[in-house]
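Lab meeting, item 3. Inverse folding demo.
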């Protein structure tokens, strides 16, 4: 993964990524008033408009909501990984999150497959999200 550009999140996204980088665990925003989960984080709950929330640790389990397979990239740092799959995962808590697939056969990805999203820390302010597949076995987290 060396040489890949590291995004510089700000505002609530920075707090979200800092929590993940600090703990090494997946988190999602949870409303303390109604329990609704949100991603990306928001100042006010989109269900009850409460400003009272926290980042709740989650296991990262979910299902493939959508995916795409890239055979070309303009970014040199990603060329060694072609073809690579980008996956939208619907977390069991409800929100959807985007990650990069880690599988030997990215063309075999199917909507509805069980997956787990794992954070890969990149400094204090960011983490990539890697999607691993049940058939590959989940690493110990
Ligand atoms: Zn709420």
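The presenter then showed the designed sequence:
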């Amino acid at each position: 993964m060396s040489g890949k550009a590291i995004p510089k999140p700000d505002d609530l996204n920075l707090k979200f990524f800092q929590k993940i980088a600090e703990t090494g665990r997946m988190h999602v925003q949870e409303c303390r008033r109604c329990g609704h989960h949100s991603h990306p984080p928001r100042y006010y709950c989109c269900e009850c408009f409460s400003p009272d929330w926290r980042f709740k640790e989650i296991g990262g389990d979910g299902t493939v909501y959508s995916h795409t397979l890239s055979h070309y990239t303009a970014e040199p740092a990603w060329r060694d990984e072609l073809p690579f799959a980008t996956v939208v995962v619907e977390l069991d808590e409800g929100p959807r999150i985007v990650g990069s697939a880690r599988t030997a056969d990215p063309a075999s990805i199917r909507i509805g497959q069980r997956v787990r999203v794992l954070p890969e820390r990149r400094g204090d302010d960011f983490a990539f999200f890697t999607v691993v597949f049940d058939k590959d076995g989940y690493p110990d987290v």
